[in-house]
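Q: Given only this backbone (255 positions), what sequence would you predict?
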C-alpha cells in the first residue's frame, strides 16, 4: 500500500524581506492555481520567520500550498532570547517545520540530541517535522554514508512510538549537493532513500516505513526533478536556491 503524496518543498533560507517574500508567494499562488487539496502533490514553502505571517495572508486561499518554518526551539516559552517556540510557529499559520537542516548543524552546531528534542516538540505541537539528514563529501568518500545516516535517524527519532511518527517527513540532503550545483544521481538518491526506509521498517514497522515520505534535497532544478521523482522511494524534494524564484519553483512543482 503506497499512500505517499509527493511533497515539493521550498526552503527560502535567509533570503527575502517581507515585501519580497509576499511578492514571490503571491506569484507562486497564482502559478499554482491548478492545484487543489485533491491534487496528486503538495507544495510547501518555508520563508524566513519575519515573513511568515504576511506570507500566510497571501497563500491562505491556495489550498495546496502549505507553509513551514525553517527551524524552531523546543521549549514552550521562556527566557531564550532570539528563539521561536512551536506555538509561535503555529500562530503564524505554519503547518510544517524543517528540523536539523545541514546549515543548522554546520553553522549553529546543532547536534542529533537537540534535533531529537525539536522533533519531539514539533510532533507534540501537531506540526509536520521535516527532519533533514545527510552525509558530507568526506563521509561519502570514506564510505561512512550509511552509518552516518543511521546515527542521525536513530538519535533524531529516539523515544518516539510508531503512532507519534505518523506525520514525519524525512529529507535526505547530501551536504556535498546543497547549493553546490552537484546533484546526487537518481540512483544515488534511490539507494539512500531505500536504506532509510529499510531502517524505519527495522526500527519501527513496515506500515510506518511505507507511509513516511522521504524527500531528496540538493541542487534540485527543473531539469533534474523528473528523473528524481521517477525513483520509487523519492517522495518529493526539498529545494533551496531554485525555490527563490516563483517561476522556477512552479516549474519544479509541475514536473
Ligand atoms: C536546501 O537548502 O535544503 C537545499 C537543498 O538547497 P539547494 O537546493 O540550493 O541545493
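A: Predicted residues:
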Amino acid at each position: 500500500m503506497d499512500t505517499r503524496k509527493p511533497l515539493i518543498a521550498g526552503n527560502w533560507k535567509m533570503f527575502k524581506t517581507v515585501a519580497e517574500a509576499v511578492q514571490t508567494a503571491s506569484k507562486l499562488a497564482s502559478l499554482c492555481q491548478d492545484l487543489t487539496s485533491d491534487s496528486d502533490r503538495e507544495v510547501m514553502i518555508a520563508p524566513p520567520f519575519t515573513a511568515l505571517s504576511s506570507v500566510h495572508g497571501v497563500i491562505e486561499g491556495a489550498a495546496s500550498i502549505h507553509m513551514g518554518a525553517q527551524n524552531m526551539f523546543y521549549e514552550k516559552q521562556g527566557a531564550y532570547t532570539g528563539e521561536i517556540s512551536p506555538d509561535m510557529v503555529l500562530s503564524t499559520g505554519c503547518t510544517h517545520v524543517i528540523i536539523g537542516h545541514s546549515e543548522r548543524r554546520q553553522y549553529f552546531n546543532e547536534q542529533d540530541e537537540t534535533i531529537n528534542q525539536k522533533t519531539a516538540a514539533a510532533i507534540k505541537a501537531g506540526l509536520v517535522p521535516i527532519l533533514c539528514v545527510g552525509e558530507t563529501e568526506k563521509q561519502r568518500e570514506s564510505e561512512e554514508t550509511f552509518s552516518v545516516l543511521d546515527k542521525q535517524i536513530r538519535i533524531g527519532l529516539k523515544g518516539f512510538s510508531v503512532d507519534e511518527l505518523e506525520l514525519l517527513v524525512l529529507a535526505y540532503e547530501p551536504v556535498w549537493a546543497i547549493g553546490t550545483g552537484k546533484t546526487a544521481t537518481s540512483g544515488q538518491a534511490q539507494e539512500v532513500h531505500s536504506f532509510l526506509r529499510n531502517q524505519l521498517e527495522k526500527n519501527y514497522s513496515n506500515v510506518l516505513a511505507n507511509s513516511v515520505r522521504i524527500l531528496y534535497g540538493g541542487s534540485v532544478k527543473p531539469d533534474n526533478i523528473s528523473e528524481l521523482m521517477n525513483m520509487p522511494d523519492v517522495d518529493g524534494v526539498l529545494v533551496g536556491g531554485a525555490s527563490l524564484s516563483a517561476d522556477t519553483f512552479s516549474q519544479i512543482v509541475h514536473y
